[in-house]
Write a structure and sequence with these properties.
The chain has 215 residues and is mostly helical. The protein has 9 helices and no strands.
Length: 215
């Protein structure tokens, strides 16, 4: 094994140890000493490659964002090939499938996006930029192919759907808690119901009064 291969193996070993710690405990309880002691990594090797807990956390965040982006790009279908509701449902659920398969990265993602350490917020935002751009590209394509309500333009639709994305997962998890359902088939059905309400509303509009005809 070459020196380059040994270095790559050591880095990967440290990354996997950090991912297990951050991916099960979140950011705050983890420190370098714990990662070393719990995973048989010498402090000399650790500090040879990584200087701080923050550097390791950002590494886990960066890998999580990159892995999620690659997973979505591999499986998504371009809007226009299916109905808008089905396209959005499929796009959002691809992410849920990724997190079902990679629960530690789910915890890292939520730590970074929902509870980011304040001193790392700017760096996390920069790491998230490629994933955010991919989401916007999808929403732009969707808005371009969808039949929009009169008076609603594509920019408004994109802003609205970007805000929906941030609350969708909480809505889905709340529904899971209420029904005690965990399988992806049930999640997919619940996602369809939620998105139907989000896109088409929940209240029946009252009949508008008829204007009196001119005499």
């Amino acid at each position: 094994m070459t020196q380059k291969e040994r270095q790559a193996r050591s880095r990967e070993e440290i990354y996997q140890a950090a991912l297990e710690e951050f991916g099960t405990r979140g950011y705050d309880p983890v420190n370098m000493e714990r990662i070393c002691s719990q995973h048989g990594i010498s402090k000399g090797m650790m500090y040879h490659y990584y200087s701080s807990k923050d550097e390791l956390f950002l590494l886990c965040v960066e890998r999580t964002f990159a892995d999620l982006r690659a997973y979505i790009e591999q499986d998504w279908k371009a809007p226009g090939s299916t109905a808008p509701l089905e396209s959005i449902q499929s796009y959002f659920m691809i992410r849920e499938c990724f997190f079902q398969r990679h629960p530690r990265q789910k915890v890292v993602f939520e730590s970074a996006m929902l509870r980011p350490p304040k001193h790392l917020a700017e760096q996390i935002r920069a790491l998230h930029a490629p994933l955010r751009e991919m989401n916007r590209r999808f929403l732009e394509q969707l808005a371009a192919h969808a039949a929009l309500r009169p008076g609603v333009d594509q920019k408004k639709v994109i802003r609205y759907l970007e805000s929906v994305e941030h609350v969708f997962r909480n809505m889905l998890l709340h529904d899971q808690d209420a029904s005690a359902a965990q399988d992806l088939h049930t999640m997919l059905a619940a996602a369809g119901e939620m998105l139907d309400m989000v896109l088409f509303g929940v209240l029946q509009q009252p009949d508008m009064p008829t204007k009196p005809s001119p005499q």
